Amino acid sequence: MKKITLIQKKALLTLHIVFSGILLGCMVVFLILNITAAATSDPRVFQACYTVMLVLARSSVRASTIGAVVTGVLLSVLTHWGLVRYYWIIAKELLTLLSIGVGLVGIYVWSLRAFELSETAGMNALHDPGFLANRLYLFTGVALQIVSLVALLALSVFKPWGKRAA
């Protein structure tokens, strides 16, 4: 397969960084909203936090995850890096699979459930064991997603472990 030019590579890398930055930013917003929802006694703030999380899960999280994965695969395939030539890229691929599962599936499902429960029960949802368990899943998923995304960033910068033996 023909490799891309340096200008094309830089453009693709720029897109990859933009999508990855949006995704990491969304997860930080999710963390702030989770903490806010857990700490507030205002029902409007409580409901608004879960509404915003659901909107982000349906839009920015999906789009940025897909964009980051597509641009990452293209960067691997269309440059000298390859998909399995370096250990750090294989590690990134495994973390990406985790990130897709947690981000596209888990966070969406947990956000939707939190929104539905907070909409129907309001602040009384705090007395529902199902809501409390879901809130813990959502918080854990967000924390895991942030750790995974920061690890992906660190792997991209440091490129540890070198090239695999051919």
Distance between the ends: 19 Å
Helix percent band: over 70%
Count of discrete alpha- or pi-helical segments spanning 4 or more residues: 5
How does the overall form come out from the CA principal axes? elongated
User: Taking Cα atoms only, what radius of gyration do you get, to the nearest Å?
Assistant: 19 Å
The biggest sheet amounts to:
none
Class from helix and strand fractions? mainly alpha
List segments where confidence is low: pLDDT < 50 over at least 5 consecutive residues. Answer: none
Number of strands: 0
Task: Give the percentage of residues in beta strands.
Answer: under 5%
Please provide a written account of the structure.
Keywords: Membrane, Transmembrane, Transmembrane helix. This is DUF2269 domain-containing protein. This protein is mostly helical and 166 residues long. It has one domain. Helix content is 81%, strand content 0%. The chain is built from five helices and no strands. α1 packs antiparallel against α2, α1 packs antiparallel against α3 and α3 runs antiparallel to α4. The radius of gyration is 19 Å and the shape is elongated. The two termini are 19 Å apart. The model has no long low-confidence stretch (mean pLDDT 95).
